[in-house]
Amino acid sequence: MAKVTTVFRCTECGWQAAKWVGRCGECQAWGTVVDAAERTGLRRTATAVAPSEGNAARPITHVSTVAAVPTTSGVAEFDRVLGGGIVPGAAILLSGEPGVGKSTLLLEVASQIATSGQRVLYVSAEESVGQVRIRAERTDAMSDNLFLAAETDLASILGQVDAVAPALLIADSVQTIASDTVDGIAGGPSQVREVASTLIRLAKTRGLPVILVGHVTKDGTIAGPRLLEHLVDVVCHFEGDRRSALRFIRALKNRFGPTDEVGCFEMTGDGIAQVTDPSGLFLSRSDAPVSGTCVTVAMEGRRALPVEVQALIVDSSAPNPRRVTSGVDSARVAMILAVLERRAGVAVGGKDVYVSTVGGVRLTEPAADLAIALAIASAAADRAYGHGLVAYGEISLAGEVRAVTADRQRESEARRLGFGTVVDASAATLAEALRLAQRTAGPAATARAATRTPTAAAVSIT
Q: Any domain commentary (predicted)?
């Protein structure tokens, strides 16, 4: 006879232990480990089952791709991130901090698809249908083909899908939906796993695209088990600073397209707007050249965005000079200051240094090193560069200017916006780059500024 062994299992995540413990060793939940009373020691093996006629294996050259052709969502920036549109049967997970605009964006997507004549079911597990309608009226997202339901029970949601027969299902959010077949509260690992797997299975069997809204934790990761990200086809993250109206959506995982695309949006009083050309959002509007400024070209996914870096240097009244940064890495700025003083002879050791970006954008790539160094040098000498100058490149501790990725795309974008002087890795050293930048200063720079007309950001209200 098989040996009977008592096994203790966590009702939240399924973790097992040989003896009872008060706290789960996997999800760290208290009081969830109970006696599972399972029989172990019997090895079970799966038996072969003949495949059905429709599921029989066939050569890859005989597989049709018609059912996997993406359809537009009506929001071009969202389609850009997804890889061209929403693929039938796809499971998409959209995460983001509270209040960033996830529900507003998805309500706009639902409205655009409903306006095209297809039915959309929007299931809100956090708001009532009246609250969703108020937001829809404010954003002009009203359509007779957009169906609303306030449900938190998984079985009820499946019944709503059978009744409506939608072309798109939106569940807001996966952490607030629960199933009666699984123990635990909504949002627990076992509940999230069951809800997600059921909705994904529904998407695959019916060819129904499903968009799930996911909560995030304090450190910005998606709440719930990591298995959730493995189950879905696309993982998108919606991010933005609450002090700024600009929002970015990027794909962290995409089985149907690239993961280096970025969609730009702007939150307005009437909802969310697409920013199709954000090139002018991060540049100052000053007509005359100002000392301590330099423009770089940053890469956001496949997009090249010009960003202005500003620096201010004043005499310090404290024993330890201040180093204040906004939008750039403070450790990177400290390194650039040391290289400037040691390799280029720019004396800033006894002065307060302030470095910031325009528009609240954050520069994290090393390509911004050269622009930061030139802005600091311009502020230290109190001499402005010409408006037609743009710089990008990584600075090493030896004072060398190193090449960066996508340099041709950066230069092409700079030329398109009217920048006539590009300082990059063609300048071998930082000292040489400073000499090239200083040639743009003076009266000629003011004359060149009058001919430069950077393209403004084109904002289309959807």
A: The middle region has homology to RecA with ATPase motifs including the RadA KNRFG motif, while the C-terminus is homologous to Lon protease.
